[in-house]
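agent: user wants the full assembly modeled, not chains individually. Plan: 1) parse entity lines 2) check alphabet per entity 3) run joint structure prediction 4) return tokens. Steps 1-2 passed, three entities, 880 residues total. Proceeding.
--- entities ---
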Amino acid sequence: MTGANYLTETRGLRSWLFTLDHKRIGVMYLWSTLLAFFLGGVLAMLIRLELITPQKTLMDADTYNKVFTLHGAVMIFLFIIPSIPAALGNFVLPLLLGAKDVAFPRLNLASYYLYVAGAIMALASLVTGGIDTGWTFYTPYSTSTGGAVNLVTLAVFVLGFSSIFTGINFIATTHKLRAPGMNWFRMPLFVWGMYATAIIQILATPVLGITVLLLFLERVFGVGIFDPKLGGDPVLFQHFFWFYSHPAVYIMILPGMAIISEVIPVFSQRPIFGYRAIAFSSVAIAGVSFLVWGHHMFVSGQSVLASAIFSFLTFLVAIPSAVKVFNWVATMYKGSIRLQAPMIYAITFLLLFAIGGLTGLFLGSLATDVHLHDTYFVVAHFHYVMMGGTFIAFLAGLHYWWPKMFGRMYSETAARVAAALVFIGFNATFLSQFVLGSRGMPRRYYNYLPEFQALHVLSTVGSWVLALGLLIVAGYLLASLRRKPEAPPNPWGGMTLEWQTTSPPPTHNFLEQPVVDRGPYDFPPLETEEETVARSA
Amino acid sequence: MSTPQATAESQAHAPFLQHHFHEPVQQAEAAKIGMWLFLVTEILLFGGLFTGYGILRMLHPDAFHHGHTYLDRWLGALNTVVLLVSSFTMAMAVHSARTGERKRLVRFLLATLALAAVFLGVKYVEYSHKFHEGLLPGRFYSHKGDPVPGVHMFFSLYFVMTGLHGLHVVAGMVTIGWLLRRALRGHFSPAYYNPVEIAGLYWHLVDMIWIYLFPLLYLIS
Amino acid sequence: MKAHSAAERAPRTYLAVLSALLVLTVITVVAAGVHFGSAFVNVVIALTIASAKASLVALYFMHLRHERPINAIIFVVGLAMLGIFLMLCFLDTLAREPVEPGLTAQLADWAVRISSRILSAS
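--- prediction returned ---
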């Protein structure tokens, strides 16, 4: 070949807008979701700035409601849910399987354009009145409040289809496009994680679709299914909403776990400990995720019987999650650990996800949840899982596959400084919120009692450190696109198939069809101490 | 179809085979898996409505019982028969495509399309009658003289469920029309009839949902 | 082709399936006019007949009987998830609301008794 890769083979805007190449669609998804993350981040900074004083600081209560609603909706529907599967997953899943593309390339492109359409609709709410319902759209408030609720519910419906299309593609690709010799237990664990994610996307997202559709019909035609005045049931809305939105939490975290399962063995140069346990625990998490939604409704008028059952089932999630964490730690044991950027983020993930996961148990217990429900404890918990978990894992994956995606190495020194700032800033921002919440600071309030101020200031200052860290990340990654060095095909010593092709890969991924005759983490044995001595002598 | 790719392998490819598949069987099986996954999403989409139906019927059993007496069960039964027969003609269309009988394929697709139109025609008669009587969903319900309260909830669900199902019938008709065009142009052969097959799967699912809607809405006893 | 012999017999099979579907439709209309003790039993009978019809469509018209098992697995997992959704939502409503007598009184009574037993035991 002439050295042309997927970025250079064809040029021009049209060649990108109409591309069917999963790598280009992944890259377009990457920039779009990062843009959404930037927007959601700016909104988050505004929220934290407002909360630096107990009274009004820079916006009134109504504006604050709209800002935190949009922050939540943008971060969840436009960033976290599509970020890892649709951006990184789209790029690497066919590469990891040794395939030329996903099973349905046109569906893949359609998924991207539905995402763009949904994003435009959601952001158009900014200029058409905003929404103040919170990202959960609870009835009956959401059926009576003004603003752009109709537009945003339709946006969520469209975004749901985008997510479903990605899921359908991943499952069909995993079943039908594996390279010769790649049986199910030679698949990289990232693929198992994506497969489990896709199961949830396919089974849960349609229920969100019908939920927002009914909410829309309720507002436009007054069908009354969730309206107690007409004989409907508002708690039913919460059942519908959380039947999707709790599994959606696993749409967010499973891909993060999938990345960690790739990074840790490579940067420890050790075969993964408990391959099958990690693979099956992904599927187990997907299955259990459908049985626990009622733990969001302990104080919503759900029956005591249902609450007791949901609380019990919620604890089951801890089992497969812990299986993963123990296996990751066991993989590192006696490995040859290199603390490069992806591995630093992976270890950060282990720490933050452990805190996020364990604090979830407080909220899953019936009695403690009554005290902690709708406080900053909940806010801190889900930020530890979603940002400390998924987003940090996203950073790990981005740093891990960046050389493959764009063919450039970034500055390792800058990456380490940024990772330290992100870690410090994140913990300052959200650890303080656990304390605030346990002392009774309610979520979604724009002012508060003066005795909470010290911790709020700490949290706000932490958010500045976090933002600075992320700006540095953006800086050195973008700078790497313009500068050398060019990345070698396999900068990290990975054994999975994406490292066997060039960086960046050619348009059809591999110059020859790869054939698989070993597992994804069969690293050469580490040298013994005597061998090290002999080599250096 | 996708543009021909400049790889050496593409010489061996049949024109309908997309570049990233090795052989037609692989492509056909992938398409079928994709369609079944999509059908599952449809089942869960309607599943939400069935759940809402179940719970509201538990809350208002008398209103649902009374509400269903305003529906004409014979028109409902007629539409059931129409959709069942259309499923049969669709299955026959797939069979004709598989055996390569182009004329029969076109005829069975036309028959399916016609039956779908009959279904929508009957639905139109039913809807206009309900509109006329003020049997409208939720807030707009204006029918007078019901012996029990809450009948509007039955009609909310009736319209949402049959309305969404009707939209699926329309989408199915568009798809069948597209198949018809391609069939007339001779795009299908025993080696390649995948689009007919997966569109057939979709059409049978639309039929299957009606199989449940009919007793739940028209036959409450 | 594995399904070749089945393919040749297909038209006759499809006709037989269609007749069965039509007969079941008649049965379901007739059964709706008969009272089987309680409304709940009637609903169960109607849904059983509907499920029989849906199974015929899935197995023969949609070829699940002759296809690779993966397609059937996908279908069944989808139905199972719907089942979980229905059951847990119904369970909550039954245990929560004072349900009007009639349709589901027995089930509600049963659920409340179980819940009180679980709670008094703990």
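agent: reporting back. Residues 23-338+487-536 of chain A form a domain with the Cytochrome C Oxidase; Chain A fold (CATH 1.20.210.10). Residues 61-97 of chain A form the longest helix (37 residues).
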